[in-house]
């Protein structure tokens, strides 16, 4: 079943977004990969996959940029079947604790990582509605966004942003509850070597993680009753 798939934050070859793009291309889909700045890695991929890969410039922290990207894409495809909100940012003080971190960094991280996906969903909603199947929105969250399971004293901006993304997801679950054409989840993608380093203790490469998520997403596409925050192992995770 070939789909039109859009994945944000896809510019880095070692990252999850790029590898989701690669996996969906390998499976025969048309993929829209969004980036904030030019990506030589994606350009190389386009040489192999041609028209099946659309590279779209978009800054999810800027509403005008997102709306312009949506207008541009609407001239190239007539619908979207799957939207994966993967783009994220962290502050320079992400690893610092409360007393050492510059708290003024937090707002930008939350704006990009939580408000950004909402901008994208709002702007591309019209294309999602035109899917012939249940269109699916998957917001890439993290276990770090679970309030009830929080154990860290660092990663304040990242954790707050992912918690906010989880809340945004639930708000949209309520918004779309009577519309069986749109389904939405937030998902913890697992512990991944997104820096590409072999000495990273994370058990999954980005390429391995991407395949697990591809299969999970299709399994959950028409599940309107299950818990909305799930892990890559298809286990419910507490908000």
UniProtKB/TrEMBL annotation:
Pfam families for the chain: adh_short (PF00106)
MF (Gene Ontology): oxidoreductase activity
GO CC field: cytoplasm
Entry protein name: NAD(P)-dependent dehydrogenase, short-chain alcohol dehydrogenase family
Species, as recorded: Eubacterium uniforme
